[in-house]
Amino acid sequence: MLVTAATVLCGIAAADTLVATGVDTSAGEYNVWIGENGQDVPAFFAGVILIQLTDSAGVFNRDTLCVQLFTDIYLNQMYGTSVVTPDEVGGGSLDRVSWLIDNALPGIMAAPNAPASPAQGAGLQLAVWDIREDGGDGFSLGSVQQASAANPTDPAVLYWAEYYEALSQGMSSGDAFVYVNVNLSNGSPAQMLEGPEFPNDGGPQPAPEASTLVLAGTALAALGLVGRRKIGMLGGRSAKL
Predict the structure, then answer these.
(1) Tens digits of per-residue pLDDT, 150-161?
(2) For residues 210 and 86, what is the distance between their CA atoms, to the nearest angstrom?
(3) Which of 40, 102, 148, 155 is the most buried (most CB within 10 A)?
């Protein structure tokens, strides 16, 4: 979850860092209520989050969404990050989330289902949360629900959340980038983010899986070829999401 209160860390050296620099208010809403295990909880912001990755090659700007329901990340705070593929994280239907993100957020491909309003962007975020935490079974049952009548979830946001869940039903992809973030001061986990592929911007990429590297190395050795491989980068951010 994105949070406004910011704690800026100074003097921390990191080869690669990630910072949540802001939010896209054209593709998200503030103070969206959602039910978690029967309790009404407000999300400071639900929608597209802007991040900035820094590594030895430079600074790279990308778009993401929160993956974990109500796990905190702070705006303008620097985090360490590992850029991985959904299958490296595993569980929580991340392959379905990956397909949805790749078809709803601009990356290397056109995104015909991209949010065209704040409510649509917030609905996309709610769909990701529900798919990840509750299997994407709607918002009337399970651990992720619409909030109560006392703090109602915006009906327009719910409409789009259910739209994106229906759109992604039965779909799967391993292409989106997952940002596994840690607090640089103590190494504790922070909000995990997921965004579309950005393989051509020169920035941090997922590292090849170990098994893939072994097979590739064997093939190259057999052919007598020598090459270089890319290594995944790290990143971080601040401000609570």
Answers:
(1) 999 999 999 999
(2) 15
(3) 102
